[in-house]
Design brief:
There is one protein chain. By secondary structure, the protein is α/β, with parallel strands linked by helices. It has one domain: Rossmann fold, CATH 3.40.50. The chain is globular.
Amino acid sequence: MTRVDFYILPDMDIDARDRFACRLANQAVDNGHHVHVYVDTEDAQRNLDELMWAYPAHRFLAHGGAGDPLGERAPVLISYDPPGAESDQMLINLGADVPSFFGRFERVAEIFVQPQIDAGRQRYKYYRDRGYPLFHHDMEAWEDL
């Protein structure tokens, strides 16, 4: 069954969520996992792609976007479309809703900043009501780690 991890950031800035997603993807790749980062739009995909080239500054994270033949073979795929069959280890959901395909993944990461707490509670209830194992992480001073 899919494990769902909720990461609650103390930040007020929505951009912190994307930076944390980059760090989480780095950690997953270091542990040998393939990561699918789900976003809502092509613009969001492009913005996250640019961020992954620069953040964190001391790392390079091999990644690509959907539709890019080389990117689809990278350990991190950023997309606003459902993943291909090979991407079933970790989903980082940056979309506004729970994607219909989340159950294909071993693990789902949901990331929320303070202005999104109510949406996070609704998402938590969604997974809880369906019986998924849930884990909660308060990420104080996460950029200092």
